[in-house]
Each structure stands twice: as C-alpha cells, then as structure tokens.
Amino acid sequence: MxxxxxxxxxxxxTASFVAATPAFxxxxxxxxxxxxxxxxxxxxxxxxxxxxxxxxxxxxxxxxANRDLRMRRLVVQPGGIVPLHSHAGRPALIxxxxxxxTEYRSSCSVGxxxxxxxxxxxxxxxxxxxxxxxKTPAVLLSADVKARD
Length: 149
Known about the structure:
By secondary structure, the protein is α+β, with helices and mostly antiparallel strands. It has one domain: Jelly Rolls (Sandwich). Helices cover 15% and strands 48% of the residues. The protein contains 2 helices and 9 strands. Strands 1, 2, 3, 4, 5, 6, 7, 8 and 9 form a 9-stranded mixed sheet that branches. Keywords: Signal.
C-alpha cells in the first residue's frame, strides 16, 4: 500500500470512529441557562419501564461503602415520564439508544432535546425530569452510582 492509500485508509477509519462516537448532550442552549425551580414537575412515573440489567457493589471493588454502580434500561413510551429526581451524590451517564426524549433541568429555562446517540451527564446535584414528546418509544441506558436502600 502506498503512503497516500495508507493515509486515506487511516483517515477513513478515523472518520468512521468519530462518526460512531456518541455526542455529549445535556447542555442548555446558549442564553437559556437559568435557575428553574421545576415547580410543576411530575413526581410520579408514567408509561416508563425501568429495569436494572446489572450492578456492582462498589465497597468490594473500590472501598465505597453502601453504593452500587448499576446499569438500567429505561423504555419511555410516547407521552411517558421519568419523574423529577435529583443527582445529588448520584452521578449518572445516560445514552439514548433509540427514539428521543426531552429533559427539563433545574439549570435551564427550556427543555433539552436528546436524540438517539446522545449522552447526558448528570451530576453536581442537578435535578431534572424527562418526557417522551415523540411518537415512538425512547430507549435509554443509564449507568449511575446509587446508594443502597
């Protein structure tokens, strides 16, 4: 393979990797960052399934007592709601596998849309809730650190 062909092959491989890398989302649109009390936020789930698909006891792994790292699969039906909750002491990463959802966050005055492939970072005590405003189910994978009950 000549240098030019090798260079093209490396560039093509890099481009396909970059295209396959999920986009970090969850930032408030420019000019919309503001305290949002979420006064009318729903407090009960609706049309959503939440299945724990795996967990790790962090005390055994890294010495963090009474905490689990868990992976969950959430399916939010059209019109479905993941109710208001806080991420104080409970960081999480969410990836939208399919469909789309809108997040309503305590630090943003408008909803934040998340499409398939987007990742949302949830930490720093953020409070929020999610709604599927679309016409197809949204499938999310959530990895979070949770206190043991």
